[in-house]
């Protein structure tokens, strides 16, 4: 259902306020540049510091402005099952094409708790869902055998895998096969994940180089592995510098240097420190991205 290069969309701020005008400009930018789906209000979208009203408003703006020109996979997960259900129902009512559901964070449920969390969602909503596994953020790793227990539920159409473990991802492919799409949640691992059957990526780097990310993924999905690998190599320096500090600090800094958005973010996130920022600026300069704007 979802395929290709999907962007983990930043939430632009002016000062401490959501910049709705710039958010609409980003939607148009990604449509022009070939992104296959928008994924607002995830980790990169600073969901952790948006209040409930802002969270729903960002989804509303993105969905309304997308106007079916591009798919929207709305970030609606929570560490509260009831809250995840409420947000997912709201996104469905707004017209989202699907929902990205992160594993509950901080309270660190057992594997049985994860199964019951996702089963409760499936009984309560009517929208396709992608399970999001990112243990470094949540403190819990949803194991391949646990996802296998959920594969028969038709609403679960995919998994965004950001465990960083290729061996775990290979086991996941072995257990679920083609019954559930698997997407890279780590830009650096996108090419290898595609090479073993992945259907796409939910990308941070695509915020600033959407066309190049889309072209790389499209070449891989078409079986043009040499072309895909060359594009992957061109992207590696950017992927690396965007991981020098906590996401989304580097990508927002990069987009600010590129003249795409104001580099504003909310506490406890702070501006990028000088050493990593200089490395980031050097990579952007080498790629011709400084000051490019939303052209």
UniProtKB/TrEMBL annotation:
Enzyme class, UniProt record, top EC level: lyase
Gene name of this polypeptide: dapA
Residues at the catalytic site: 132, 160
Quaternary organization: Homotetramer; dimer of dimers.
Main location: cytoplasm
Record's keyword terms, sorted: Amino-acid biosynthesis, Cytoplasm, Diaminopimelate biosynthesis, Lyase, Lysine biosynthesis, Schiff base
Keyword tRNA-binding attached: no
SMART domains for the chain: DHDPS (SM01130)
Lineage of the organism: Bacteria, Pseudomonadati, Nitrospirota, Nitrospiria, Nitrospirales
Pfam families with a match to the protein in the record: DHDPS
A GO term, aspect molecular function: 4-hydroxy-tetrahydrodipicolinate synthase activity
Family of the protein in this entry: Belongs to the DapA family.
Site feature location: L-lysine inhibitor binding: 48, 79, 83, 105-106
Biological role: Catalyzes the condensation of (S)-aspartate-beta-semialdehyde [(S)-ASA] and pyruvate to 4-hydroxy-tetrahydrodipicolinate (HTPA).
Compartment(s): Cytoplasm
E.C. code: 4.3.3.7
Entry binding sites for pyruvate: 44, 202
Protein name, per record: 4-hydroxy-tetrahydrodipicolinate synthase
Organism: Leptospirillum ferriphilum
Reactions it catalyzes: L-aspartate 4-semialdehyde + pyruvate = (2S,4S)-4-hydroxy-2,3,4,5-tetrahydrodipicolinate + H2O + H(+)
Pathway: Amino-acid biosynthesis; L-lysine biosynthesis via DAP pathway; (S)-tetrahydrodipicolinate from L-aspartate: step 3/4
Biological processes, Gene Ontology terms: diaminopimelate biosynthetic process; lysine biosynthetic process via diaminopimelate
Annotated site (Part of a proton relay during catalysis): 43, 106
GO cellular component: cytosol
């Amino acid at each position: 259902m979802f395929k290709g290069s999907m962007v983990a969309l930043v939430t632009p701020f002016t000062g401490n306020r959501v910049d709705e005008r710039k958010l609409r400009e980003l939607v148009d930018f990604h449509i022009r540049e070939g992104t296959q789906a928008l994924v607002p209000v995830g980790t990169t979208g600073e969901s952790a510091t948006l209040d409930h009203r802002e969270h729903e408003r960002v989804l509303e703006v993105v969905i309304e402005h997308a106007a079916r020109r591009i798919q929207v996979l709305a970030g609606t997960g929570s560490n509260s099952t009831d809250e995840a259900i409420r947000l997912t129902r709201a996104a469905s009512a707004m017209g989202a094409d699907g929902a990205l559901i992160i594993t509950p964070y901080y309270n660190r449920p057992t594997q049985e708790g994860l199964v019951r969390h996702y089963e409760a969602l499936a009984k309560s909503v009517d929208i396709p869902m992608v399970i999001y596994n990112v243990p470094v953020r949540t403190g819990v790793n949803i194991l391949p055998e646990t996802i296998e227990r959920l594969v028969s539920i038709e609403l679960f159409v995919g998994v965004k895998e950001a465990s960083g473990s290729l061996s775990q991802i290979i086991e996941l492919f072995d257990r679920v096969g083609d019954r559930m799409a698997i997407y890279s949640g780590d830009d650096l691992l996108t090419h290898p994940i595609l090479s073993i059957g992945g259907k796409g990526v939910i990308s941070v780097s695509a915020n600033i180089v959407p066309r190049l990310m889309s072209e790389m993924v499209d070449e891989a999905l078409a079986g043009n592995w040499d072309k895909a690998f060359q594009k992957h190599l061109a992207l590696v320096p950017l992927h690396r510098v965007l991981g020098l500090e906590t996401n989304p600090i580097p990508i927002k800094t990069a987009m600010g240097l590129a003249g795409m958005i104001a580099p504003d973010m909310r506490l406890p996130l702070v501006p990028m420190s000088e050493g990593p920022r200089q490395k980031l600026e050097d990579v952007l300069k080498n790629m011709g991205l400084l000051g490019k704007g939303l052209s």
